[in-house]
Amino acid sequence: MPLNRLIAAACLMACSIAVHAQATSTGSGQGYPNKTIRIVVPYPAGGGIDLISRAIGNQLSQRWGQPVVIENKPGSGTIVAAEGVAKAAPDGYTLMVTTDSTISVNPHLYARLPYDPVKDFAPITQMVLLNQLLLANAAVPANNLKELIAYAKANPGKLNYASYGSGSQPHLAMEMLKSQAGIDIVHVPYKGIPQAVPAAIAGEVQLTFSGAASSIAHIKGGRLKAIAIGGKSRLFMLPEVPTFTEGGFPEVPANAWFGLFAPAGTPREVVMKLNAELVKMLKEPEFNQKEVVAKGYELVANTPEEFTAFLVTDSQRNARAVKISGAKAE
Fold first, then answer.
1. How far apart are CA 110 and CA 74, in angstroms?
2. Are residues 103 and 218 in the same domain?
């Protein structure tokens, strides 16, 4: 995305909360909810974002006495689901739990999108961060970033890494690391994490990225090495693994986020009711320990305004990463 378009998008994003606040003309939100709520997830059933969405849906249904249905609509890099939600009635009964791909990455990957990530959605809350681990096959002669970079420099093109496609989080993170460290590591795209992690274990590739929940057993079992992790602080489950920031690479985008959105124009009262309920739920000790901490997520649970401000900087960060990676999508 050209710089002028990026700046314009950032300004629009920063103003979006004000626009959403004026959206009460579509309805007051009084009596909400009084029928089934649909939460669209742009990923297949069974993944981390699907599981936390179902846990949230179950809790909302119990608390509000209305059915909450999770609808999985994978396809086209989250575009299918996002387009549908963008065009849904802005009444709070169609919501979307999605990741940075939809809002912060796709605008820089695609020349055209059938939705506007700034104008078409009302941010409700950024629920959690999923900090990604850089993982190495057990045979790789490196145990930390310094050793990995030294080995890669001494053996240009010998190492390869698995991602789940051009423009995916592992692809952007590794390409940023390669650019900043001045190393040559070959990209090998797979269909998803379920294929990439076993490939690294088997030695088909030497490196990949994954969240703690899907890789900690392999790390503890010695099948994979944890080289570094995204985020601001170390993961309590793996306190010995330093962050990319500690290793001198704070710009490596080795994390993703899960957030809740409604269509733009959803009444402010509905947005704030959803935010209050989600934040309360995510912070409750029983839910937090089971659905957040135990799965290696970092709790965020912020306000719509805080989420909107974050989206501006996140989009700018991903614009730089996409440009460095050279990733494009049609």
1. 17
2. no
What are the helix (H) ranges across 160-303?
169-181, 193-202, 216-220, 268-283, 285-287
For residues 261 and 123, membership in a common domain is answered with yes
Same domain, 152 and 97: no
Alpha carbon distance 217, 221 (integer Å): 6
124 and 261 fall within a common domain: yes
The answer to whether residues 274 and 262 touch, using CB atoms and an 8 Å cutoff, is: yes
pLDDT of residue 191: 80
* Closest by Cα among 239, 241, 222 to 137: 222
Q: Which two tokens stand for residue 46?
A: 């069974």
Q: 177 in a domain, yes or no?
A: yes
In a domain, 38, yes or no: yes
Position 315 pLDDT exceeds 60: yes
Instruction: Work out the average pLDDT over 280-292.
Output: 96
**Domain assignment present for 321:** yes
Give me 45's structure tokens.
């059933």
Cα(177)–Cα(161) distance, integer angstroms: 12
Q: Answer yes or no: are the C-beta atoms of 91 and 27 closer than 8 Å.
A: yes
Q: Residue 144 belongs to what domain range?
A: 133-229
pLDDT digits (tens, 9 = 90+) for 85-118: 999 999 999 999 999 999 999 999 999 999 999 9
As a 3-state breakdown, the chain gives helix, strand, coil percent values, each rounded to 5, of: 45, 20, 35
Over 80: is that where the pLDDT of 3 sits? no
Summarize the confidence of residues 205-227 as an average pLDDT: 94
- 70 and 112 in a single domain? The answer is yes
